[in-house]
Amino acid sequence: MSEFWSDVVKGLTPYVPGEQPRLANLVKLNTNENPYGPSPRVLKAIRGAVDEDLRLYPDPNAEALKEAIADHHDVTTINVFVGNGSDEILAHVFLGLLKHSQPVLFPDITYSFYPVYCGLYEIAFNTVPLADDFSIRIADYARPNGGNIGGIIFPNPNAPTGRAISLAEIEQLLQMHPHTVIVIDEAYVDFGGESAIPLTHRYPNLLVVHTFSKSRSLAGLRVGFAIGHADLIEALERVKNSFNSYPLDRLAIAGAIAALEDKAHFERTRKAVIHSREGLVSALDALGFEVLPSVANFVFVRHPQHDAEKSALALRQRGIVVRHFKLPRIEQFLRITIGTDDQCATLINALREILA
Ligand code: PMP
């Protein structure tokens, strides 16, 4: 800590580096990456983009990628924003779209970066408790704080629970708050959820945020996008252009376009993850775990007789990393990313030993 730091910086806690361990041969089931590699067409496109043109700045609007995303989701390019992973887009959303003078709402158990962005930009927030079964209950968002709110944001499916709400419920929320920006973070939607993107045609206050890190196997490339009414997108462009006019580099643009083009690879790997999830859920269930219903590429589980932190440590000693959150109400849960069938089998064998 330095006397030169601002109060905001003094309050920041750096991201735990242990979540990205640098050990070889780990069964890495802690940060919801895809166990399958990206499409070979992505690798080819990136290699193809490694040429003399790297001396030139990339397209400041990443227009070719925006066109590919717009085509894919049946919108136009003025409805598309792209950024370095959805984390960067979410940062712009908090800065530019959610009101700072009134509290922003999100669930009490949700993506841990939301309160971080609020701290960074000095945005007030209120959390809305999840129901007893860890689901988001839309009725609880009806008129908190007398309806005086700065925006609503949550992932669907939610993280780290994996539970999703229906499009009908999202539409109910949009109708409750027609003058409030509502952001649905769909990082995990391709593993069995329903995307709210079609609703953006009818609700100018809805922004849907996606990432290439999960279902497109490109966490290392850092590409995300948001879809919404042109006015919402313009706000994000204004934020971005006020400090960085280049959203993505040439390799990221080339790779992301190729990822969208290879629909067969996307379908195959997405279905393989869903299939492995079904197997993992039954195996965990047979070991006595309570498994929350998940439509994501991870499961959120607790064992009535075994301490979650101890189990996570015992797994780590066996070279398997899963996520444990030391947070009230969920300290007895583990979040486990769906790996390949082999990785899931390794995990189950290790848990069988640990629980014995
Ligand atoms: N939203 C949620 C709910 C997430 O879990 C994550 C990744 N951990 C992100 C957004 C950010 O993903 P990325 O920056 O890789 O796009």
Automatic annotation (TrEMBL):
CDD domains assigned: AAT_like (cd00609)
Q: Where are the transmembrane segments?
A: none
Q: Name one Pfam family in it.
A: Aminotran_1_2
User: Per its UniProt record, what InterPro entries does this chain match?
Assistant: Aminotrans_II_pyridoxalP_BS, Aminotransferase_I/II_large, HisP_aminotrans, HistidinolP_aminotransfase, PyrdxlP-dep_Trfase, PyrdxlP-dep_Trfase_major, PyrdxlP-dep_Trfase_small
Q: Which reaction does it catalyse?
A: L-histidinol phosphate + 2-oxoglutarate = 3-(imidazol-4-yl)-2-oxopropyl phosphate + L-glutamate
Keyword match Nuclease: no
Keywords for this entry? Answer: Amino-acid biosynthesis, Aminotransferase, Histidine biosynthesis, Pyridoxal phosphate, Transferase
Q: In which pathway does it act?
A: Amino-acid biosynthesis; L-histidine biosynthesis; L-histidine from 5-phospho-alpha-D-ribose 1-diphosphate: step 7/9
Record-annotated Aminotransferase class I/classII large domain positions: 25-351
Quote the EC number: 2.6.1.9
Keyword Transferase listed? The answer is: yes
Task: Provide the cofactor list for this protein.
Answer: pyridoxal 5'-phosphate
Per the similarity annotation, which family is this?
Belongs to the class-II pyridoxal-phosphate-dependent aminotransferase family. Histidinol-phosphate aminotransferase subfamily.
> Which HAMAP family does the record associate with it?
HisC_aminotrans_2
Q: What is this protein called?
A: Histidinol-phosphate aminotransferase
